[in-house]
Amino acid sequence: MTGRFPENFLWGASSSAFQIEGGWNEDGKGMTVADYNSFKRSDRQADSKVASDFYHHWKEDIGLMKELGMQIYRFSISWARIIPDGDGEINPAGIDFYNQVIDCLLENGIRPFVTLYHFDLPYGLVEKYNGWEDRRCVAAFERYARLCFEKFGDRVKYWQVINEQNLMIRVDERMNINEPDAWKADKIRAQMDYHMFLAHALATRACHEIVKDGKIGPAVSSTCTYPLTNKPEDVWAAKMNDSMKTVYCLDMHYYGKYPGYYMRYLKERNIVPEMQEGDEEILKDGRMDYIAVNYYRTLCAGYLPADEDHPAGMRVFRGNEVDFDQYGYCRDEKNVNLRASEYGAQIDPMGLRIVLNDYYSRYHLPMVITENGLGMADELTPDGQVHDPCRIDYIREHLKACALAIEDGVELMGYSPWSFMDLLSSHQGFRKRYGFVYVNRDDTDLKDMRRIRKDSFYWYQNVIHTNGEEI
Length: 471
Ligand code: BG6
Prior knowledge:
By secondary structure, the protein is α/β, with parallel strands linked by helices. Helix content is about 40%, strand content about 15%. It is built from 16 helices and 15 strands. It is globular, with a radius of gyration of 21 Å. 6-O-phosphono-beta-D-glucopyranose binds next to loops. The site of 6-O-phosphono-beta-D-glucopyranose has 14 residues, from loops.
């Protein structure tokens, strides 16, 4: 390696189906949990009906990806476009759509990195089985995954099974959990999580069987937690915060069994999921080949003792619904040493170096960054430009952290930030934008959906062109 990044380093950008595609019910596509949730907010903000309208602009958008210099494009397939109700009839129009996208990417020299499931479970599976609570959802996923490998595996070699299982399981809306009783909700979550682990392992096995030279792994929402003080209890709390939110999940994908502390938690809460004979082999057989890392921020935690009203293991979700406190383990705290984005995410490039080193020393597997970026309320100037210097600074500093991690010995295959173009943010619609390409619409007005290159587009284009030498 002569420069900061290896010669074969893969530069790209990312997106997900429900956040960019639109065409939510076109050509046979079924409704998804992501559609359903976004429609609940339709009176206040953009929903998934049109999103960035990639469904009708994909040729133009792939042209822009080529112009940016992208070598990989990380996107997701919508399960409900392929199998509208999740486990029934196959929709040939959905397969055609992704075939065209994949072919066009390859014609433009861009390798597809595909996620099978990014928060958008077909709603039919919720109606039939309450989604992941029922083991039939596992079989449905395996069937869908096999179909994707058979149809697209001749051209798609890099797959991610589930986007951020470890985060999604903490968001009731995404899992369709409507249980007011905290213990019952924890029990349902544990069962759903377990079923997703099985589905992950079965899909991994199927990919190894069907896709020649295929590589498959999870896309994890990484966490890096600092202790609130150097008291030993706080240091332990910080480790447990990472373990309970992320590392147990990676361990499942690598070793095929819950780590001891996680089994202890499941037992102390009396929520050990139902397992069947043969599951152990399935889980062991589904070892990940690489880790796709999503990284935005770091966390801070102090020790939270259990008490009479709050037994060990009990979780309480606070504020943003993604981060929980866990009695007997850890409590989320603010890190006064970090500044936050306008949407509250604490910005911390050093945390990325820590995460990459941590995961590499645990599993010695190659990694790729599939999400990293800054959500901002970008605005179009009267002369039609978008100046986003904060995004450039954010990505520059995180790229420096990647370069240092590579020097530390981490096998980092590539960098694919969030997001290629503006898209539907989960909670802030089109008010919060991440893209290199501005989409000219807002929450209430579709305007002309014009694509406009932001300043960061030109900056990142040069980064790719110089293989990261000019950042
Ligand atoms: C990640 C998700 O957790 O965060 C993306 O994989 C999401 O789908 C991104 O868009 C940013 O979060 P938000 O809430 O700002 O859209």
